[in-house]
TrEMBL record, chain A:
Keywords: Cell membrane, Membrane, Transmembrane, Transmembrane helix, Transport. PANTHER family: GLYCINE BETAINE/PROLINE BETAINE TRANSPORT SYSTEM PERMEASE PROTEIN PROW, GLYCINE BETAINE_PROLINE BETAINE TRANSPORT SYSTEM PERMEASE PROTEIN PROW. Residues 91-270 form the ABC transmembrane type-1 domain. It comes from the Bacteria. Belongs to the binding-protein-dependent transport system permease family. It comes from Halomonas organivorans. This is Glycine betaine/proline transport system permease protein.
UniProtKB/TrEMBL annotation, chain B:
GO terms for cellular component: plasma membrane. Residues 284-340 form the CBS domain. It is a peripheral membrane protein. Belongs to the ABC transporter superfamily. The complex is probably composed of two ATP-binding proteins, two transmembrane proteins and a solute-binding protein. The keyword DNA damage does not apply. It comes from Halomonas organivorans. Residues 28-269 form the ABC transporter domain. Its main location: membrane. GO terms for molecular function: ABC-type quaternary ammonium compound transporting activity; ATP binding; ATP hydrolysis activity. This is Quaternary amine transport ATP-binding protein. It holds the Pfam family ABC_tran.
Length: 279, 400
């Protein structure tokens, strides 16, 4: 006879907690929801309002300026393919979600990362939380997002921010901690305040590392935004999702290739931004 | 002799324990235990123990000791880059360990500039911006700090390099930038932690000379750390010798060399003690001017003035050394209407032969203020040894 261990109702507790949060803070969540939705709509409308060709020119120009001609040529080819496949509008929707999620993630991650670098105690508290955030399967974040923010893009942003933020925090902390102690000591020796030390020495010297973190955040955000189609986010992800439901692998791959092209463009762009910062 | 000099920094009873139970470590120290035993018993490192010394206004004080003796800890306690565990550090009436955070920043800005062993230049700033750093921190306006930094760079011979980045410069030049950053700041004390140790020997010698010149010109109170006795001897006005976090001896280079406080110091200076094989000849200089026994005090005075001498040797017609007269005695003789210098000359100076061991000369210098004459067996004057030359000779000998 098996010993009858009582099952720990972990799931019930978490659900209870989430329920409590959604009812207690419904005002807050609704506020966040409204602001985020406005941001998404605004950026989306702006990008949609631009004629397709002019957006293409802007992106290609950016590639040329920040990186090189090769990336610019690649961008022309890739974007033309997306346009030709009729995936331009979903691509814009995805880009919008990625940009907003990344912005929110970075705005939260920078101060947290800096604080964790400067305080040993905070560092020790935050690192396990980051491990947790990163190893938890991405889908799981989608579930609490719905009671908080309902089905749709805001929930997608919420889940994406949580999922993609850890590298930005981690790299910011790492970057600041990697600044040679003797340089920090030199700043101290000349009587620098904490703020002067941070802005004149620590941040400028950790910039390349911080940028590497932001690059990873963007990549994670892109992958999550695609998954978030499951809870009603528009964009390339929902094209994939529809293809799955209708069992049309061709459509699915077309949308998938568009995601890959977008990913490569964003990656190369942010990397060259980083190199530019270093030089 | 040093009593009438102004004390710039007074350090009393300074101790530093690295670890979480400093009280326990200090208790054991008070029971007479030394650093290794304290480390064994408590796991605490006694970095510094009961350090007492003064830094005089305008002097170049060298803190010397082997690796691990606590030099870096000591210099960092002065501006509290390391928090002292106990003790007093008083600069211009302020006790640094008891300053609040804001006062400490103010104190660092006003009193301390620092030069680091590995330069610690900011790689993202140009040479000019590096030199401006201290002023920028103090909120000096852009035009003024540009001007000041530019002057400092000129002083260390780096004009024309303002817009270079540190990594484009050689080690010696980088440390000049470090020095310029310190000088531009115009703080009242210059702290240098093994500032020249990372440089190769030739550059290092140059930098030492330049530092000496700057220091003589600006009379900047300087605390200079080195583990190298030769460096200490050649630049220090006084030397504080550390061992295992304690002061073993404080004194001028001569005092350290001639009256080592204990066996440790004796062993320490052995490496330099080439004086046992060096002789008076190696430190001997040409005599700039002499007078004859038949000359009068007026001639002696004129020759001393022309050759910037404080005293002058008197020779007979065979160039044999028969005496010495100093400027005071000569003026007195002139007033008294004396005919020849021989009437007032003195014999109270030291004479040696060329092969006299150099280390013997130290003792002579401490007993007698006149230069030492070098003569041959027939008492014919060969040359003269002045105090500085002996030290120079020893310092150079240490390099071989
Ligand atoms: N942060 C620290 N924690 C623990 N022990 C330390 C710390 N800093 C220095 N010590 C110890 O204190 C002693 C003195 O170190 P310090 O760096 O002052 O020596 P030093 O004379 O400057 O040596 P070096 O010539 O190698 O630079 C050493 O035993 C060192 O191990
Ligand atoms: Mg050291």
């Amino acid at each position: 006879m098996a010993i009858d261990f009582p099952r720990i109702p972990l799931g019930d507790w978490i659900e209870g907690g989430l329920n409590w949060l959604t009812t207690e803070y419904s005002g807050v969540t609704r506020g966040i929801s409204r602001i985020t939705q406005t941001g998404i709509d605004g950026l989306n409308d702006a990008l949609m309002w631009l004629p397709d060709w002019s957006l293409l020119v802007i992106i290609v120009g950016l590639c040329w300026w920040l990186a090189n001609v090769r990336l610019a040529i690649g961008a022309v080819a890739g974007l033309a393919l997306i346009w030709d496949l009729g995936l331009w509008d979903p691509m814009i929707e995805t880009l919008t979600l990625v940009v907003i999620a990344t912005l929110v993630a970075v705005v939260i991650a920078l101060p947290v990362g800096i604080a964790a670098a400067l305080s040993e105690r905070l560092y020790k508290t935050i690192m396990p939380i980051l491990d947790f955030m990163q190893t938890m399967p991405a889908f799981v974040y989608l579930i609490p997002a719905i009671p908080f923010f309902g089905i749709g893009s805001v929930s997608a942003i919420f889940a994406t921010v949580i999922f993609s933020m850890p590298p930005a925090i981690r790299f910011t902390t790492l970057g600041i901690r990697q600044v040679p102690t003797e340089l920090v000591e030199a700043a101290d020796a000349y009587g620098a305040t904490r703020g002067q030390k941070l802005f004149k020495v620590q941040l400028p010297l950790s910039l390349p590392t911080v940028m590497a973190g932001i690059n990873q955040t963007i990549m994670l955000a892109l992958s999550m935004v695609v998954i978030a189609a499951m809870i009603g986010a528009d964009g390339l992800g929902s094209e994939v999702w529809r293809a799955i439901q209708r069992l049309r692998p061709g459509d699915g791959f077309e949308a998938g290739i568009a995601v890959v092209i977008l990913a490569m463009l964003l990656d190369r762009l942010t990397q060259s931004l980083r190199k530019k910062g270093k030089a | 002799m040093s009593d009438n000099r102004n004390v710039k920094i007074r350090v009393r009873n300074l101790s530093k324990v690295f670890g979480s139970q400093p009280k326990k470590a200090l208790e054991l120290r008070d029971q007479g235990l030394k650093r290794p035993e304290i480390l064994d018993k408590t796991g605490q490192t006694l970095g510094l123990s009961n350090i007492d010394f003064d830094v005089y206004e305008g002097e170049l004080l060298v803190i010397m000791g082997l690796s691990g003796s606590g030099k870096s800890t000591l210099i960092r306690c002065l501006n509290r880059l390391i928090e002292p565990t106990e003790g007093e550090i008083v600069i211009d009436g302020q006790n640094i360990p008891s300053l609040k955070e804001k006062e400490l920043l103010e104190c660092r800005r006003r009193h301390f500039s620092m030069v680091f062993q590995n330069f610690a230049l900011f790689p993202h700033r140009t040479v000019q911006e590096n030199a401006e750093f201290g002023l920028e921190i103090r909120g000096v306006d852009a035009a003024e700090r540009r001007e000041t930094a530019r002057n400092a760079l000129k002083q260390v011979g780096l004009d024309g390099w303002e817009n270079a980045l540190p990594r484009q410069l050689s080690g010696g030049m980088q440390q000049r930038v470090g020095l310029a950053r310190a000088l531009a700041n115009d703080a009242s004390v210059l702290l240098m932690d093994e500032a020249f140790s990372a440089l190769d020997p030739l550059i290092r010698g140059d930098m030492q000379q330049e530092l000496l010149q700057l220091q003589h010109r600006m009379k900047k109170t300087t605390v200079f750390i080195t583990h190298d006795l030769d460096e200490a001897l050649s630049i220090g006005d006084r030397i504080v010798l550390l061992k295992d976090g304690e002061v073993v001896q404080i004194g001028t280079p001569e005092e350290i060399l001639t009256k080592p406080a204990d066996d440790y110091v004796r062993r320490f200076i052995e490496g330099v003690d080439k004086s046992r094989i060096l002789s008076a000849e190696s430190a001997m200089r040409k005599v700039r001017s002499t007078v004859r026994d038949t000359d009068g005090p007026r001639t002696a005075l004129r020759k001393m003035r022309d050759h910037t001498l404080d005293s002058i040797y008197i020779l007979d017609r065979d160039r044999r050394l028969i005496g010495l007269i100093d400027a005071d005695a000569a003026s007195q003789a002139l007033e008294d209407g004396k005919e020849t210098v021989t009437e007032v000359m003195t014999q109270d100076f030291r004479k040696v032969t060329r092969d006299e061991p150099l280390h013997n000369l130290f003792a002579m210098f401490s007993e007698n203020r006149f230069p030492i004459a070098v003569v041959d067996d027939d008492q014919v004057l060969q040359g003269v040894v002045v105090k500085g030359a002996v030290l120079d000779e020893l310092a150079q000998a240490g390099d071989h």
